[in-house]
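Review box. Two proteins, two foldings.
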Amino acid sequence: MTIINPTSRFSALLHAIGADLTTLAQQLDAGEITQAHVEDHLRAYSDQMDEIELRAEEPDTLPTPEEMRQQVTREAQGYATARARDED
């Protein structure tokens, strides 16, 4: 069994979230993405942060930063699809 340092796993997720949000802000400022795209990702990150908070007591259940990013991407795409459907 692998022992996971809870602080480093949690810290890695926080660093990943910070880096991803910074990238979104830079892309928005550069006109590469729309505000709606950012809003979809913010909702998805909010969902993931709620999940991380619930699982923080059991660090071996926390996702890796890459798993979290993949989940955020899936959720953001779902939000974008729902928004497009609502706009029709």
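Next protein.
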Amino acid sequence: MTADFTMEELHRRLAALDQNLAAAADRILEGGPAIAERQRQVEVLRLRSSLLRQRLIDAKSTPWDDIKASLQADWDGLSENLERWMKDIDKDFQSGRREPTL
């Protein structure tokens, strides 16, 4: 995240992530064989997003500077997992092993 990492920006990014993960989950269900692992990965990402959103809600009365670093670290970790998942899907698709899910 950039220096303008704010509570509002994190809310916006989590909402966008949740929409994209829901769409990915729907596409996975439309896929063929070997979808269970991809579905599990989407559910893990959705759970991490949900936990981060709950932390953000719980921290509303906490000064932003007191929680910013922790929330940003959680967001960065979630983003890295999402990027890794997308690269795995791209690699599988390029090798012809699976249908694209995103």
